[in-house]
Amino acid sequence: MSPKRSKRFILILMLLSWVFLLLAGKETLKKYLPASMFMSLLVYCENVLAERIKWWTISTKIFSHVNGIMPFVLGVFLTGSVWILKFTYKNIYLYVFVNILVDTFFTYPFYSLFKKFGVWRLAHLKQYQLSALFFVKSLLMYAFQKYIGDRIYSKLSSKTQPLKTKGSPATY
To answer: How many CA atoms lie within 13 A of 123 on its CB side?
Structure first.
């Protein structure tokens, strides 16, 4: 695939991710966006390290001066994290199962597609190692949501609820 078509493919993927992110709803975003942003930052930092130690290379970039992982960080990873948390959080077994499925899908058929399109390729990392890396990050995201994200959400929620005054009916 030509570099121009690869760039278009990545851009379309990122824009579709944002459309789906908007469909998640305001409360879902308020609740799960901090953990998803944490995951996106972690993926970005991981990529900087991974490219230096040659775990993989990203050859297609939307903008020449922007790291090639950015469309994925701001698109698929951010959006996917929000949706996975929305549907599986509070059920660790379901969360683990869904993440294994998603990580496996990304690591095998999706990776093959990106490799075919010339977007990125693994260098000194095997596919099963990449899948394990994704899984470890998913556990970190779950822990972040449980120990930090839930606290952030409860503070945000308590600030947006109306104050109860003496003599006024209770609102729930």
So the answer is: 12
